[in-house]
Specification:
Order of helices and strands: HEHHHEHEEEEEE
Shape: globular
Number of strands: 8
Number of helices: 5
Radius of gyration: 17 Å
Strand order of the largest sheet: 1-6-3-8-2
Helix content: 10-25%
């Protein structure tokens, strides 16, 4: 049998990062992207939006399965900047669960408190400790203040299957509002309860989400990929 070249998984969590991730349900890595890389991804989002008949600059826009719909995003499927974190958790069973980019203008749609994944039987039923999904976000817009469409989460809530504020937008004691600079990367445990603030600013919040799971979990943004694309 001919020699086969194998791709080595890039580095993922340090021990300190893993402990923080499992304690908080969230890991924030500042300056993960350079300014040039941020500009590159913003240009990709702007170009993809301009090609979509569903895009309205006055409304929230958040297409799914972007790696197939917009081929330029396929480079992110196993990008060494982040894929090592997913490989640390799922190893050779690693699969892309969902890929999205979001544009949130002023007064846009905002989410209520929820964990990611299934609701009726949440992921925590099957995996109360380890995440059945790890969601990676690239933050491409400076969000120095609250009410700019910020991501809000409850630290440590990934250990609970219910939250009293579920299905509300209520601010609750102990929540953390992400006020991040562009170029920040975050990793979230899928069981972490979170919501999104309204955007009361004139800044268009732009970011990319890539979630990973083990291969036997149903994908979230497609029934199956086009065989020609695969």
């Amino acid at each position: 049998m001919a020699d086969q070249e194998y791709k080595v998984a890039p580095p993922g969590f340090s021990r300190e990062q893993w402990n923080s991730f499992m304690e908080e349900g969230m890991l924030v890595i500042e300056n993960a992207l350079t300014d040039d890389e941020v500009d590159h991804y913003v240009d990709m989002i702007d170009a993809a939006s301009a090609r979509s008949e569903n895009y309205d600059p006055e409304k929230f826009f958040g297409p799914n399965n972007i790696v197939e719909k917009y081929p330029e995003f396929a480079e992110l499927i196993d990008h060494p900047r982040h894929v090592g974190f997913g490989h640390d958790v799922y190893g050779e069973l690693l699969k892309l669960h969902i890929s999205q980019f979001f544009i949130r203008p002023r007064d846009s749609k905002h989410n209520m408190w929820h964990p990611d994944g299934a609701r009726a039987v949440p992921y925590g039923v099957f995996a109360p400790e380890l995440p059945m999904q790890v969601k990676i976000a690239y933050w491409l817009t400076d969000l120095p203040e609250a009410e700019m469409g910020n991501f809000v989460y409850m630290p440590g809530s990934h250990r609970s299957q219910y939250m009293d504020a579920y299905d509300t937008h209520d601010s609750v004691p102990g929540e953390k509002i992400l006020k991040v600079r562009r170029g920040t990367m975050t990793l979230m445990h899928c069981n972490t309860w979170h919501r999104v603030e309204p955007n009361n600013s004139d800044v268009l919040r732009k970011n990319i989400f890539l979630a990973y799971c083990p291969s036997w979990v149903c994908e979230a943004d497609r029934h199956q990929c086009s065989p020609e694309w695969l």
